[in-house]
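Q: Protein A?
A:
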Amino acid sequence: MPEALPSGHFLFASEATTEGHFDKVCDRIADAVLDTCLSQDAESRVLCEACAKSGMVMILGEVVSKASIQYEQVIREAVKAVGYDSDEKGLDWRTMNIIVAVEDQGPDIAASLGSQRPKLADDQAVAVGYATDETEEAMPLSHALATQMCAQMDRLRRDGVFTWLRPDTRVQVTVEYKTDSDGALLPQRVHSISVIYGILAEVKPAAAEKDFMEQVVKPVVPERFLDSPGPYIC
């Protein structure tokens, strides 16, 4: 049965991913294409998207630039930087299949963004959010902790401490909140932590979970938010 919470208490969860999550890998690849264009031609116009699956990366879009771009090299270097170096991890930067479907920018967009017109973005969006005094980052505690845990796991993997960890990890942190008499929302404790990660075959899940608790959770989560003996990790 679900855990019963005291009156005025509720649970709020946030999720974050490490740099090896394929969404972030695709963002890194698209950014690398843009950076390469701008490094050679500051007037470049780049509309580039990337998608990836096991063993394959594809980029597609429209580019207007005087830059000479070796797309395959740019893609492989971006994937290499994340640490995808074997098929066992899902991608090997040396052998993965690459599809490049990039063409010149359409004439309607090119005309609207001509050199005689002000520099405008052809895509615009409005983001809505809020700030909170729960953390120094002015973000909800659950979000801050999930993000910090992912950053810690990236560091430990890169530094060779977590040799068993694959690049793609997802962390969800659930925090119990209390609604104060004045309406303020006060974090009480970390209720649970859910982790989805890939490990190498020779590492036992129990050992990986112990490493995660000792080297990720305890260094990141303030002790006052940890129940004894600690949050439930699944």
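Q: Protein B?
A:
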Amino acid sequence: MTTALYFIYDSHCPWSYAATPVVNALQDAYPNMTVNLLHCAHFIGKDSAGETQMNEAAKASALPFGREHIRYANSPKNSIKVANFMGWLQQGKQANKQLAVLNALQKAHFVEGNPLNTKRDLSLVVEAFKLSPSNKIFKDELSLDAERVLDDIGEIQQLMGTNKFPALIMTVGDDAIFIDHSQYLSRPQDVVEAMKAEIAALK
């Protein structure tokens, strides 16, 4: 059966950062599975998740948060350019790099304190993965690719009955499994056995 994973996230959300290792574990366990990373562009420069949410995500996941990120945890965040960048990457010939790129972006933001809000901020990741994005993605408004991703998210959220994020859904053939990622933040690898049991129950 064909399997696919859908991860609704925001690159500047600490809970999305905490959930990404769960996505990594599933990708490692199912290397032929299509992984769809859907950036919801929640943060547009008006607010942030804040220090309290960051501390809770850190406690739940044991992931590192760097000094510079902690220092500015309550400052407004803007993820529009990353949403554009990831939307562009998803549509291109190097879509298979999406998850590795997301991991690198999250490390840059949450560990190294990179705000990821300018072309220069993104340049190290772009160069490391030998990517050549259009200059259009560095505008201060959502690109057409990013807008299409939001349309896809809207359809999935309607199916889920909630607009909360991060969110993880695995599809197996015509069946959908909604994954409660919060159960696996401290031990991401545990999601693999849980999904094997869920898939076996579908047969």
